Amino acid sequence: MADQVETLLAEAARLPYGEARTVLAERALREAEALREPEPAIAARLALTQAYQYGGEPAKSFATFSRTVAAYDAEPGRFTEWQARRVLWQFKWIMSDMRRFPEIPLRRALDALDDMERRYREAGAPQAVYAQRCRVALHLGDEPGVEEWLHRWETAPRDDLSDCRACDLGGRAYVLASLGRYEEAVAVGGPVVAGEFSCGVQPQSILCTLLTPYLKTGHLDEAAEAHRRAYRIVQGQLGYLDDIGDHLEFCALTGNETRGLEILERELPLLERPPSPAQARSFMTGAALVLRRLMETGHDGLTVRRAGRDVPVPELHAELAAGAREIAARFDVRNGDDVHTRRVAATLAAEPLVAHLPLVSPARRGEPAGRINPADTDSRTAIRELFELGEHDAGLAALRAAGDPAAAMETAKELADLDLDVEAAQAYAAAADLYRNAGELLAAGCAMRQRAKCVYFASDDFAEISEAYAQARAALTAASEAGERDAGEPGTGPSDTGQSDTGQSDAGRRREAVWELAGLGYDEAVALEWAKCHEAAAERCQEALDAYLALDDQIGAMRARELLEGLRQETEQED
User: Fold this and answer.
1) Which residues sit opposite 303 in a β-bridge?
2) Which residues pair with 312 in a beta bridge?
3) CA 8, CA 153: separation in Å to the nearest integer?
């Protein structure tokens, strides 16, 4: 039976976060608890807490996490070293969640933070606690406290329980932006935007954070690009409901009310099952601001489709604005102040920062969707922007008429999203050839990695799958080696300034190559596990883990550790 628990957890770990993964993790926990043996239940609860967190159901993680902590305090010797560290890591998730639910008493949240600090100090890792105290002070409107804890956060040495560098910088940028220190926020977020640091939630989160700072500091092109890049990643994802609200607010502040209405209609169903009241409030506030601007610009006769009926804009505006105020008031009752009510009121009354900020390149302006001629304009930019704006049908039509590698990559991604993996693999291979011919070895390697994944999904022939991964590894290794050579030879790279054509630094490109190789190792380990080659899978997974740790990508390392632990257990059982 313990083997069945391990099998279920391994199967769940291969799935994207969402209902299917969560259901498998829940089943694993039920079977583990039926065994009345502590160890399988520990593994299952840790996995289920994570599934709830990333699957848009953070409220359910309170119970699983508290039981894990109780079990650890009762019998710490039952936990492996890695599991004990995971308990501490998950404290950060729970603390963030406690700020998102007004029904959780403030005293309880502060006591939990004190408990977290005690445990982290015993582990010699206080930096993440300073970050949490800074965020709590921001939540409470305690600006002196924010400044004090931000200083400690910034000056404390990093440790193995710190957020990855991308998220650490993202958190600091968010605090600085909230304090109105916009230039500093933009500067702090720069390395993540440039690709020097990344993880599973970055750069999309920091791009969202920087929307207003970019506008406030006159970086209008960067603001439009941040909206396009980030929204394409987060659209339709329940866990990013608050970020989607920020994108709605951005549309209202930049004269893009029509674009905001499109996003609102697309994402409104997510509001029926919000992950938390705080995220619902953010979405409702941004949506209400868009609707208010539509009313003020003479579009109050429009309707929005919701739950099977067409709701007039004024009616929906009133409902969402009232909902945002009600949630803010609940937080203020909990905290004993009026901070959140004032913040919501300020956003609902906000005036545009820009009369109209075009969200597409000059070549696209004025062109109706689906009428792009890739030969009368910049096809690469135009096609990318079509997809980023959600105009998928028009994007596909334009892609078929274009012939550059970026177009082929977009085609491949669309085909993969439609589960047409054979066709997607062919498109990725074509993109790799085009990139290689253009001397863009890293882009070619990235395309080959995606091709290998499509071959894995499409084929039952392990020899074919192995060859696809071998080709991808060769391509990415060549790109990494070329990047190292260029770094040591001034003037041989894409430009004498050490910047690529897209503005990414040599260091950023080398880091991306290493990150892609780490991801390839993880992907190949999954494929090898499927083929029951557990020892070889463990070797590849260990390579991925080592690379993620060198990159300080804690989320990548977490995924690799989980898979590696399962693979080692399977290898031991075979022996």
Assistant:
1) 312
2) 303
3) 39
Give me the helix-helix angle, 462-487 and 441-458, nearest 10°.
170
* Contact call for residues 163 and 200 (beta carbons, < 8 A): no
Q: How many CB atoms lie within 10 A of CB 235?
A: 17
* Overall average pLDDT of the 118-137 stretch: 96
For residue 228, count CB atoms less than 10 angstroms from its CB and return exposed for 0-12, middle for 13-18, buried for 19 or more.
Answer: middle
Whole-angstrom CA distances from 481 to 467, 478, 511, 570 are 21, 5, 12, 34
Q: What percent of the chain stands above pLDDT 90?
A: 62
**CA–CA separation, 217 and 197 (whole Å):** 23
Buried b (16+ CB within 10 A) or exposed e, 145-155: ebeebbeebee
For the record, the structure tokens of 273 come out as 């099952």
Q: Are 296 and 339 in contact (CB under 8 A)?
A: no
Can you list the alpha helix ranges (DSSP code H) found in 75-160?
Answer: 81-98, 106-122, 127-139, 143-155
Q: Give the tens place of pLDDT for each residue, 4-31.
A: 898 899 888 888 888 899 999 999 999 9
How far is C-alpha 146 from the geometric centre of its chain's CA atoms? Answer: 25
The half-sphere exposure of 23 on its side-chain side, counting CA atoms within 13 A, is 4
Helix (H) or strand (E) holding 396: helix 392-401
Instruction: Supply the DSSP symbol for 302.
Output: -
* Global confidence as pTM: 0.73
DSSP 104: S
Please give the C-alpha separations between residue 188 and each of 4, 126, 160, 426, 467, in angstroms, as whole numbers.
Answer: 46, 21, 21, 40, 42
Residue count of the chain, please give it: 575
- How crowded is the C-beta side of 469, counted as CA atoms within 13 Å? 23
Six-digit token pair at 107? 């005293």
- Is 60 exceeded by the pLDDT of residue 504? no
Residue type present at position 432: A
Helices 81-98 and 106-122 pack at an angle, to 10 degrees, of 150
Quickly tell me which residue has 């998950």 as its tokens: 90
Whether 226 and 192 have beta carbons less than 8 Å apart is answered as no
- Going by the DSSP 8-state scheme, the letter that residue 202 receives in this structure is B
